[in-house]
Amino acid sequence: MSKDDHLAVLKRYSHARIGLGRAGNGLPNRHVLDFSLAYAKARDAIHGEVDFQTLAEELSPRQLLRVQSAAFDRATYLRRPDLGRRLSEESASILPGGPFDLVVVIADGLSSSAVDHHAAKLVLSLEASLRELTIGPTIFAEQGRVAVGDDIAERMNSAVVVVLIGERPGLSSADSLSAYVTYGASSRSRDSERNCVSNIHSRGLSVADATQKISWLVRESTRLRISGVKLKEAAPRHRNVLPSK
Predict the structure, then answer these.
(1) What residue spans of 48-147 are helical by DSSP H?
(2) Quick one: fold of 50-230?
């Protein structure tokens, strides 16, 4: 098998920049420009703002609540991850007390474009899949990190929380969404108590396949009253061939 054939096989299974070729002592101009564009998209995803108004319209007439973390602006959020993990005092006071089987939190995280492109579709798909559960209002958490879902779930007395959040963008995908599933979340929850479904985007895990995996995790968490490393995942494998990065 020739070198080109080996590269062709690798390219079938990865979006990494493999075998780009040479132009003198550097890369071909089109690849340099492509890299610069990917870098610009990643920066825009991190510093951009989620269009929560459009999200609300896409999820209408679903009951929605918009809250704010203790990080009141983007610059603070990026410098102080700890503030993004808890609610502001004002936001904490507006949450309903439940109880609920499930609450879905949409947090901007580190990619506004991921939330804009995929969050509403995933919420609607999850609700259709989990009709047997009592699902609370969908929560929009501005400047939120994953752990802000713990604070929300504890205050809303929700058995399970699913946090949909924009992933840190890479140079192969700037709009990748993750979902974190936690049972019995509280301010004492640790990262090891969460299950993560990542790389949800058009060239990675589809919304349909993500729904299947997340729904399985939610049902098993509810049935066994555990999540994270204690929950041994046996969800059906998704159909996607190419990883995201």
Answers:
(1) 52-59, 74-79, 89-92, 112-114, 120-129
(2) Rossmann fold (3.40.50)
